[in-house]
Amino acid sequence: MPMKRIRKTPDTRWPHAALKQVFHEPSRMAIATALCARDQGLAFGELKRQCGLTDGNLNRHLLTLQNAAAVRLTKRQEGARAVTVIHMTQTGREQFLQYLKALEDILKLTAKELAAEESIAKSGELWNLSTLAP
Q1: What is the C-alpha separation between 112 and 126, in angstroms, rounded?
Q2: What is the pLDDT of residues 42-56, one digit of tens each?
Q3: Please, what are the domains in the chain?
């Protein structure tokens, strides 16, 4: 009998609970980063080059982002061929900024905790070295 996977709900007291899975994957983060400052969007080929993805990989990630209402695709004619242009939606931009804020909070918290540990280690309190002195 296969074991059931139990998915736990993240503890919302910690900033990592605010991380949006849709952006946390490196390729989707690259896509969102490339699109967030471009109101006119990017052509599929240009986005593919900037992110270093294949056609299939980019399509798969765009579908995930579309399902999250983070991007929209439009078509335009360039001569005889149609060009797909990808735009970040306002909702997508807001979600991505929330994601970046959560990531920043995590980094600040981690840096603070590491600095505290380093301070304790330098003082000798981490190992309670003061009790070893004659």
Answers
A1: 16
A2: 999 999 999 999 999
A3: 16-132 (1.10.10.10)
